[in-house]
Amino acid sequence: MTSTIKERLPTPALAILGVTLFYRVATSMGPLAILLTLTEKLSLSIASLALTGWTLAGALSQPLWISVANRAGLQRTLLALGSVSFASHAGIGVVDGALAAVVLSTVAGASLPPVTAQARALLAHMLDGSRLRAAFDAEAALASSAFVIAPLIVAVSSLAGKVGPTVGCAILLGAVSLAFGFVGRGIERGSKENSELSKREDDARMGWRTLALIFSGTTAYGMLACVEVATVARVDDRTGTALVLSAWAATSFVGGLCFSRLKNADRLRFALLPVPVAACALMAAFTTSNLGLFSLVLVLSGFAVAPTTALLTLEIARVTPAFHQGKAFGWLQAGSWLGSAAATVVAGSTATRSLSFVLLFAALLAALSVVAIVSCRWRGSGAGEAQGADAARKQ
């Protein structure tokens, strides 16, 4: 049985999803804007170093800002971070020295507001059952669309000059911070009990299932990064690479939207988990011949990306108590960025020597992600007791 997203989700949830789309676009613009701007002004090595600082600082700061938001309030935290993020991203295109560019890029990454993590926690608080599944499916689908939208905005903003991409990213991040602070304010008032619990339970450790799922997210996003690097190396043409990766993202978007319309599709979600493993292994067989089949396998496998990403998010919401959900989603965001960055380094350094190794490594990462998700799902029913109590309270 199917229904539209608008019919199944309340207006505040739709507003949160809309804001997260723009945040995803902004954080997808950031790396590309930094690389283009600093490579042209300084050098590729300085740009790469600045991007490394941006990524590491952005990943590691997400759980910290979640804790700060629980204490100081979501709106005040986002206003402060949005101001710093706007100024630092805009400044990247203005500074001339290498050291200043690297430091400012690191500050820009560290000041990224925890919109994705906080949005997931708010959705988990607001919704339950099939509505939460629909929200996370839609969120994963929108994340795929951001992969296509961000380069287009960077290309258009480049017409404004050298500082266009970084200033465009800065404006979008500032606007998103203000918008999410406004959207989340009313929901935050309804989540005070979770905030109080968070203050009292801050020293408590997350359960092993939550930690395993965060690890699963790290390996899953590492797999996606390896596939992107392998596609760039295999296609060896800018236009062709852009078209193939855009088609891959588009099928992921379609997959997420399709699942968001289904009310009971848990078994089908789990059935899709092995698809990335099989796709990476199959693409490894076409690294030297039959580019058409390589591209076809990649594009078709995209249909499973958003639904499996949404499943991972759903499982974290299921096994994690309410007072730890914000922190858990913050670490999931951090793990996804760190996993993607580490896998990109490994894949980039080995792709020229053995493209098959890169894809088999991606298959291994995908398999590890599947094992973590399945083990958390089926190792006893006690994992969801805390979340079950929270769901009962919502009803």
UniProtKB/TrEMBL annotation:
Entry keywords, A to Z: Membrane, Plasmid, Transmembrane, Transmembrane helix
InterPro entries: MFS_trans_sf
Flavoprotein recorded as keyword: no
Bilayer-crossing regions: 12-36, 42-61, 140-159, 165-187, 208-233, 239-258, 270-287, 293-317, 329-348, 354-374
Presence of keyword Transmembrane helix: yes
Descriptive protein name: MFS transporter
Organism from which the protein derives: Rhizobium leguminosarum
Phylogenetic lineage: Bacteria, Pseudomonadati, Pseudomonadota, Alphaproteobacteria, Hyphomicrobiales
